[in-house]
Design brief:
This protein has about 160 residues and is α+β, with helices and mostly antiparallel strands. The protein is built from four helices and eight strands. It is globular.
Length: about 160
């Protein structure tokens, strides 16, 4: 884990947010397989945790993992990937809180702008990203598999 994030743990509103660790990968992989049609493998996450240009966070309530997200720094642009919140806990502000912390920490990594892709049918996620200041920047036709669907490209500029 990057030295600037060692010991980081934010607690607010009953939620605890911290960098993802190897110990989280089993549960993260389980949730990933529930919510994504083309899930990342446990090994993909393990490799990402070793990447100095990546940061992945988990959010907990007590000992229960409620969600996770990640960002890759590409020359000052943050590519947000794999945002997930347990379905039973959606609508509680968990995704928003987690992404706010992720983007704040991303600035410490030198990230100035953020981008992401989201299924065009995912109205809830699109609404959240707009609340966080993301704007539509185009469509990636056929970006998603299982089922095949276009992705909305969104950017948040500093």
């Amino acid at each position: 884990m990057k030295a600037i994030f060692e010991g980081l743990m934010e607690e607010r509103d009953g939620f605890r947010i911290r960098p993802m660790t190897e110990e989280d990968l089993e549960e993260v992989s389980r949730l990933e397989s529930l919510y994504f049609s083309d899930p990342w493998s446990k090994n993909s996450y393990a490799e990402s945790l070793q990447n100095e240009d990546a940061l992945f966070l988990c959010i907990f309530e007590g000992d229960e993992l409620l969600g996770y997200c990640g960002v890759y720094n590409a020359c000052g642009d943050g590519d947000i990937c794999d945002v997930a919140v347990k379905e039973s806990h959606r609508g509680r502000g968990i995704g928003r809180r987690m992404l706010e912390v992720l983007m704040d920490l991303g600035r410490r990594m030198g990230i100035q702008n953020y981008t992401l892709e989201v299924r065009v049918s995912n109205a809830g996620a699109i609404a959240l990203y707009k609340k966080l200041g993301f704007e539509s920047a185009g469509i990636r036709p056929g970006f998603y598999e299982k089922p095949k669907e276009d992705a909305l490209i969104m950017w948040k500029y500093s």
